[in-house]
Amino acid sequence: EMRTYDLKPRSLPEFIKRFGEAYEKRRKFSQLAAFWYTEIGPLNQVVHVWKYASQADRERKRDALMADPAFQAYLQKSRELGAHQHQECRILKSTSFSPL
What's the predicted TM-score (pTM) here? Predict the structure, then answer.
């Protein structure tokens, strides 16, 4: 799964800080493969990739994540920050030679 967030200008540092603080809670549900932000190209953009064995695995783990009170608290803090302008989620299928 690849998630791309377009953030409001000047909100990137606080968004990354809050995500980093919540990461320990998040990683018990899913394996983070990559987390990047843009320096060139569309600015104020964050991209993160999560590894799942299958779509069914993703759905089970996302359901458990969304039911977790600690993660719900992070989502509330994220909404209060108001950094998100746009979010996109893609489900990607790995090739046989991909390292993931």
Answer: 0.85
